[in-house]
Amino acid sequence: MKATGVVRRIDELGRIVIPKEIRRTLKIKEGTPLEIYSGEEGELILKKYSPIFDLSIVAGEIAESIHSILQKSVLITDMEKIIATNNSIKNKYIDSTIDNKIEKLINQRKSQIVSTAEENVLLFLNTTVKNFAISPILTNGDVYGSIIIFDENKLVEETDKILCSSFAEFVSKQIG
Fold this sequence. Notes:
Layout: H1 20-25, E1 34-38, E2 44-48, H2 51-54, H3 56-70, E3 73-77, E4 82-85, H4 90-93, H5 100-107, E5 112-115, E6 122-124, E7 127-129, E8 131-139, E9 142-150, H6 158-175
Antiparallel strand pairs: 1-2, 3-4, 3-9, 5-8, 6-7, 8-9
Helix pairs in contact: 3-6
């Protein structure tokens, strides 16, 4: 653990303010769910909660199923990183942080095909993908992540988007 040198007091309602610098660094925004743990030596540990991460084994099976149907690459993300992929690309993408552009697309809360000449649309480990389908994983109005389908050599089509959306809806039901 890294010490910050910042001391905060708990108010009469049991609240504590997390300093803005730490929230910005860790991408903690208003409404971000946090898990609270107590450590063995009296520590209070806050950890960002990702219900999709709890489903990472199921998410991997879903990614593999989509890949076997479409023969295209599949990424399943929470709001920060890739938590599951199909097996053929697992070592290349798993645990990679999602791009800010991907986060903005997820927060648009709609399934879509993104096709652009713009560079670095989907960039993970020096791989640029300019055409992909993305569907947000939504539960009770909250956005928890996404499913992304792409192929570096082929165009993504409307049927890919429909399948992406269907599986995102399935994952949503598993969460909530």
